[in-house]
Amino acid sequence: MSRLSNHYELQLQDILKPEYDKIHGFSCGYAAMSKKGLWGFINTEGKEIVAPIYDLTFPFNGEFATVMKDGFFGAVNVQGQEVFPCLYEAPIEFREGLNVTWLKKSGMYFLVDKNNERVGSQEFSATMPAVSGLIPVKAQGKWGAISVSTGELVAPLIYERFWAYSGFVIVRQKGKWGLIDSNAKEIIPPIYDDIISGDEPSFFVRKGALWGVVKIEDGGQVVTIVPCSLDYEIFAHRSVKEGLLEVARNGLYGFLDLSGDLVVDCIYDEVYSFVNGFACVQRDGLFGIINKQGVEIIPCKYRKTTEFKGGRVWVLDGGQYCILNENGERISNEGFFDLKLPQANGLIPVSRGNIWGAVSMQTGELVLPLIYQDIEVFTRDIFFVKRNGKWGIVDQDGNVLLETIYDELIKYERRALENESSFYIPVRKNKQWQIAKIWS
Q1: What is the reported pLDDT for 6?
Q2: Residue 390 belongs to a domain
């Protein structure tokens, strides 16, 4: 063990059984491993907690991990016990914050708790993820919802479609759309031909070809902001982001706000959702960036752009990527042939030819030199790097955490990286597996 940089220390554990053929990334402190084509789990000390007897495993999510044997699913716990036998027709997952899960048998779903005890008495042909205490369910061709806590029906099985959002559910009945709340109380009767949710308690609603805007006040009162009089095309895959909705007229796109005002004229061949107050737009095959007032802060003259973030954007100009500021000015003379998203702590991997490094988004200067065959962002300030066909690890300052002598480094499951200060990384040199523990 030694301090390798100003940020991190590293320890290698040489205790894994060499006969493992493959190891996946850690999730919740456990990693799947395989031997002779069958899968099990190890912990961060390399100890085998689930023997490799399964045809397939899923990452741990909290206390449980789904496993599969002979085409049927079950689940194991962190003690290595098969708490749900492999008898079921769908993966078993206890989603974050929930103490219940679905089991599927003979084509029907039923709800159980963590002790494999039934919750509620009914069975259903289809389900959706829980939202605001409701779980959408389907039986006999109709949708309704059950309570997460009791498993009993709260919203009756009378709807043709059922889309749950935070606090509200958009429902369709007899071909028309309406809205209910998380207690299954009707807020908007099914009278509209379409409804699109906003990122506030506001909804775009359509009658015939014309759109309007309604807002749900505290207490469930519906206020009409704009009657159905707006003549725009709005598509199902579009959604309100940062208070603005992508709309089209005569095949060209712009943005409406939640008052029904056209804040960005319909002059673009394509628009993309606003992120942090800016949106990418396309005209005549070229891309630019606009703000919420519709001003092109980066004109539409580039073959590609990234999201505008932190006052910076990458653009593809003349065959090379460069960084522009909010005035459209290059912040350095450096240009690169390729780049990789997302960025990590303000650094982004870039290449010239087949050689990779990393650049600061703020200064445009190289922080990690162009000496690597490949770079992958591991987490906010740690990079996997490849030289001479071998992998290693460096931090954001280029300090070597793990020498580039390994044949394989295995990333974490992405959901396991949130707010972590220490990481466990399976590494392989020849046929020998180790675990690299890195912590700050």
Answers
A1: 59
A2: no
